[in-house]
Structure formats: structure tokens, C-alpha cells
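Delta-1-pyrroline-5-carboxylate synthase: C-alpha cells wanted.
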Amino acid sequence: MLSQVYRSGFQPFNQRLLPWAQSTALSRYHRVQPSAIRHVRSWSTIPFITVPLNRAHGKSFAHRSELKHAKRIVVKLGSAVVTRGDECGLALGRLASIVEQVSVLQNQGREMMLVTSGAVAFGKQRLRHEILLSQSVRQALHSGQNHLKEMAIPVLEARACAAAGQSGLMALYEAMFTQYSICAAQILVTNLDFHDEQKRRNLNGTLHELLRMNIVPIVNTNDAVVPPAEPNSDLQGVNVISVKDNDSLAARLAVEMKTDLLIVLSDVEGLFDSPPGSDDAKLIDIFYPGDQQSVTFGTKSRVGMGGMEAKVKAALWALQGGTSVVIANGTHAKVSGHVITDIVEGKKVGTFFSEVKPAGPTVEQQAEMARSGGRMLATLEPEQRAEIIHHLADLLTDQRDEILSANKKDLEEAEGRLAAPLLKRLSLSTSKLNSLAIGLRQIAASSQDSVGRVLRRTRVAKDLELEQVTVPIGVLLVIFESRPDCLPQVAALAIASGNGLLLKGGKEAAHSNRILHLLTQEALSIHGVKEAVQLVKIHAGPRFASYLTFSPSEVKSLRTEYGDLELCIEVVDSVQEAIDHIHKYGSSHTDVIVTENEQTAEFFLQHVDSACVFWNASTRFSDGYRFGLGAEVGISTSRIHARGPVGLEGLLTTKWLLRGQDHVVSDFSEHGSLKYLHENLPVPQRNTN
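Answer:
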């Protein structure tokens, strides 16, 4: 591992220093922290992980999942991130956490660069201290220590504060990075360093040399001499960018150094579609070039020169130059300790800027459409929901040729890839479609008495009545295996119960699912709720895929569920041992006992803790259609709020309606005029004809 590290360009700390700085740096560390320098000299013995990171620069990453391949990364720390709430001094705990994350990534073999604010705040703290000390001494000499007047601190000029704070800020960074055996180097720049060709080449060469020696460059605008920002040539084109704050500096540096990723940390979670403080502000997960028109920018942060609008302009400029960008919150106590590493790991943090816009709506947008459509669906009359389901049943038979043609494509593509039992599930036929249509019409009939049904009525007190009524759950997400006939069944149940629906079918049934979904939306359109059912663009990663159990497993254990005409036989000594075996290895789905002994059978039925327990009957009866539920979403093995085959009733929840006449709780106190009755009232029966 060590030899590989050296071949990759890593060197011990005392070999990584630039020749002109080596003796100075070593003597300074020896004087300030002798134990630390001894630790640094043994750096080569510290084990760490190196990751293969080879990527040709030129095009930004299209998806968050690709960010883990980023080799060269710029982290921009906004003033609000490194500055304390009183704007005088640094947020040391937050800064230490950021340094730790940068160090972790650096020690993985990545090339990290920091663009940091904070010199002005650090200098302001030092200058205020000096001014207060000077004033107190003068007043003590003239007035005596017992008669000190209230001391007024003059307004401090920003350039003076920067000059006083830059050395202290860098010394702090050096001390923090030393704890991780990493060397840091400071580079102060102005706009001229990028527009003067010779200076630009010098800067570029210095940065590349530092990165080659595994040193973290810490870059900042030289606020002690920088001129006021000029509005001309502001972020126009790849070759022109005015460095007027650290946002534009970070973008220019990222493109200049051909970095893979720019992380901009601020005091907000990311980019919102309206100012973050407004009630309807919504965090934008992915931002695409051209979306600026849909965003309303607010004011800038409490400190610093730029606001969110400046960050977005800089981010889009960097994106155009081939660098991926994420804007995220670096101040939130719950996430700041891992925000940088989370972003690099591809987690959904902040706003990700991407040039690749999906052809259709995102999963989040589909979920919103399903919720909105579901709410409209719930407001329809029962007869209207039933009409939609009847129309869908008619379409299944009227459009059978189109459906079977699409299913034939699925079967041809699956031939040789799927086992015979799965091919049978995938196959549709005229008889299957006719059975589906019959089941859907049963659901339509039962939907007349579903949403809004009164379950309980209570007279709490005189003229104060309480009702419990059924209401839709909201939005359902149903992932189903290679059975396209599930789609219309589940859709009909969602429609009957007034729920929005997100459907994810197996890719082996893509053609069949597509035509069935189109027919479902056609049926929904007759009452203007087409978007209530969505077929979702979900891809499972290796870890998520390992959790899916939709296809038969060939694991040779007592827990194997074969999904075919196969079974495992085991011998037990008693019915109780059989029950214990089921509870240990079973799925709590459906279990059956075959016996002529009624006493044994009843014992089994009462003691097996499964959703369905049968006596002398096939487990295949565990089905919503065979139970008379019309169809099913699936078999629930949980205990709340539905168990067993989940039909229409399982897709509803309840809410409480209280109707009173100016009732207040104080009327029911010990000295109040009313008493609680809690009388059960008859539940009205709805006419289902």
C-alpha cells in the first residue's frame, strides 16, 4: 500500500514542502507544536484508503451517483459558514468539521482545494480587541479605572480587517490540517491574476505543483488590496468571468483547474424556487440551465458580498466549463459534520446542477402529480369513480389486440432469460383479460360504499356529535413483479379508494405495462383525473437490488421461497414444534395444515401468527379476488393497518368529524354546565344500489 501511495505521487510531509518554505515551516511547527511535528514525520506509517479516480475532464457529471468518481474538488466556504453569528470571529467547531471532511477525501487520493472567506471576520475580531484595549488604557490614564466611560468602537474598514485577519486565518487552517498529517498552502489572488496571461499561467502552475505534492491549496481573494467590484463582463461566456467575490473566484478556479466538482457551502439548504423564508418556498433538488426564470431570488446572506443569485450565476458558468456543482448548507448543526462527504457519496444533499435534463417528469414531479390527482379523485362522487373503473374494464376487452401485441414483445424479449414459472406470470391471454374485466367490475360495485363511509358516531354531549369516517390514505407506491395484470387491478383499487398511485413494474413487462398504463389514464380522463396514476424513470443500485425478493430465490436454506412447483420437507415431533418452525423460518404470509384431526387443526389456526392460516385448503386461495375483494394490492404481513390480502378496505384510513354548537372545553369542567355523555349513535347505512 505504501509503495502504491508513493507511486501515486504521495510523499511524507517533510518531503512535500516547497524547497523555499521547508526550513521555515519546520522550525515554526517545532517551536509551536513539537509533538505535532514528530507525529507528522511518522505520517508515512498511517494507513488510509486510496481510490482509483481516473476521469477525463470536459463534461460535467449528469447524475449525483457519478459524483463519487470526482478526482479534483473545490470546496467554497461562504462567509456565513466560517463566521460566527455575531460576525466577529470564526465558527471554530464548524471549521474543524469541514477540515476533517476535506482531509478524509484528500487521504482517499482526491485533490482538494479550498476557497475560503473569513479573513475579514477574523481581522475584525482582532482589531476590535486592540481598539478596546487601547481605549481602556487611555481612559484609565485620564479618568481613573473607576470612572471608565462607555467606549464606542469605530466602523472598521473591510480591507484593514482583511489585512489583520489573513495571517491568523491561515495559521488556524495549518494547525487544523496538521492534525490529519496534511499540509496546506495559502494563495491570495485578485481579478488581475486571471486576466493577466503571465500571472494566470504562474497561478495555474503553482496550483498544479501543490496538488502534485499532495498539498491542499487554500485560495482567497486578497481583500486587503482588491478593488471594488465592477459590473462589466460579469459571467458572460466561458472565457470571461469577473472575480468580484468568492463565488465567482471558486467558479473561475474550478474551470481553470479543470476540476470535477465544485461544492458551494452557504447558510441555506440549497436553491429554492422562491426566497427560503417564504411560506411556499420549495427546495430544488436538480437545477438545469434555463431554469432561472422559475426562481425568485431573495436578499444576500447576513455576511459576505454575494447572494444566492451570484452563486447560481457562478455555478452555471462553472457547469458550462465542464465542472459539476452542488450548493448546500454548511451551517446546519445536524448535517454540517458530513455534508461534504455526503455530497461526494452521491447523497441527496442541497441542489445539484446538471446539464442533462430528463425527457419526462422526475419521480418527485410524478409523486406531486399523483398526490394532486389523487385529491381530485377523492372529491369525485362514488358513481364517478365507479364509472372510471367500468370504463377501464371495457378498455381491457376492447383493446385486447393491442395489449396482447405488447405482451408478445415482452415474452419474446424474456425468452431464455426468465424461468418457465416467471414466463407464465408474464403472459397475458384473452381469458386473463376477461377475468381482469370481471374483477374490475366487482371493485366498481364495492366502491360505492368506500370513501366517506361512517364507521362510528358518538354523542359527546348535548348538540356535540363526533363521527369517524373513511378517507383515502393519500398516495400509494406499489412495486410489483413480472405480472402486468397487477397494473389494472391495483389501479382500480386506488381509484375506488380515492388514492393517487405510483406504479413500478418489472422491466421484463415494460411493453405490457406501458399500454395498460395508457389505458388506465384514458379511463381516468373521463373525469379529468388522468395524472392520479403514474408509471415511474426507478433504477435499483446493487445494495437496493439485494433487498428485492420479487423473483424466486435458489438459496438452499429453510427460509427459501421457491416460487415454483418445489418444496422443502422437514420432520418435526409435534404440532407445537411445527408452529415454532413456521415462526422461525416463515414469512408470516400464508400457512396451511393438512389434517383430519379437528382439535389439532383449531390449535394450529389459533396459534400460527400469519396473515392467512388455512386448514385443508390450498395456499393459493390467499388472493384478493378469491376472497371476494375484487382484486388486491398484495398480501400484507404487518399488523397495522391492513393484514392479509389488501383490497379496497385496506387502502382507506379514517378521520374524525366533530359537529358542535359553540362548545368549549371549560363547559365540561368540574364547575361547568355540561357533562360528557359518550353515547353510541346508530351508523347510517349508505344506499349501494
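The longest strand covers residues 464-472. The chain has three domains: 64-139+156-225+242-353, 363-452+472-542, 557-646.

Cheers.
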